[in-house]
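#lab-general

N.A. 3:47 PM
ok so I finally got the sequence cleaned up, no stray characters, all 414 residues accounted for. can someone with queue access submit it? mine expired

B.Y. 3:52 PM
send it over

N.A. 3:53 PM
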Amino acid sequence: MKGNETGFAIAGSLAVFVAILMFVGNAIAADPTERVLHRFRGGKDGSAPSAGLIADKAGNLYGTTTNGGAGSCQGGCGTVFELSPAAAGRWTETVLYGFKGGNDGAIPQTGLTFDAAGNLYGTTIHGGMLGDGTVFQLTAAATAGGVRTLNVLHSFVGPTEGEYPWGSLTFDQAGNLYGPTLFGGRFGGGTIFQLVAPATAGGAWTLNVLHHFKGVTDGLDPVGALIIDSKGALYGTTYGGAVFKQVPPATGHTAWTLQVLHNFNSVLGLSGGLLAGKNGVLYGATALGGSANQGTVFKLTPPATHGGAWTASTLYEFTGGSDGEYPQNALVADKAGNLYGATESGGTSGLGTSFKLSPTQHGAWTKTALHNFTGDRDGSGPGAGLIFARQGALYGTTVAGGSSGNGTVFEVAP
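B.Y. 4:20 PM
back already:
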């Protein structure tokens, strides 16, 4: 990277990116309103949505539940679901697939990604041929409400490839997929992988391991979605506190190179990935750290000259209690540069918050609480990141709470 000349494409689905461009200009007002769109009932309906959502152009929301559905797993093997806006402000949930826990995979811990044809892609941390997780495709329905088919693109087979793919997938311009595995690899510290798309539709995808984490100087246990820049470089985080860049091979070479951009030097829980800002700036959150050790929001600024050091600055330190605790996932931004996210716990009831961070003329950032979760019908534990979708509203999930304690999908609207 030279200076600040980095053009990022945000990881995840094309539909989400379009939705952000369409709606994100409307910043959340000072007095937002939280509304629950769906309360999971457990069983076939699904339970514990621990990942974030994606949206299509029509405003339908898609996500996964860690448990529930069919299958032999205790509590269920998880689901893929769709939420569609209906009349009178109601939303309708459709379970698109229930994992069975065998070769099809089990426990989809992270969110989904679209391709241009409307197929959904995701990962499971268990199941597959050896139980080490899968990458799957859920085909688009030929007609509204039609059948979708689950195709397993890859089953991980332990130490050589990695285990437990724990991050939403990222497409490059050629249609190849990228993601991290939390564990496994040659040194047991996780991997970054590439799945090369087949030359013809229906063919086999090819797995390439781009990096095996050693856990010494390169970080440990990569987790969260990767983002990709205009030159094909990948950026991500490790749970052990490192922010890294995976550089594609130079012309005539085949090996990718990993560079650590910043190391927080402790287990800070960088589990949600990064947000790309203007001029190559990266934003993220740490679950721990800060003066109260309750988490931070940070900015990483690229060097002014090639090969220089990145500069880390703390935008906000959570103090715990009513202020919120443990922001664990990626942030989202509006056109004005405000940042939005969630804390897994804390708030007035101790069960999580959604928040907005606004820059000021003097360089400080001001935090506004958008909603304090009560754990009752509105849910508890909003550990996943938020997205913008219909009319500038924010959408997210809670892993617990709701009518039966199985989690919710919520909206925070102006």
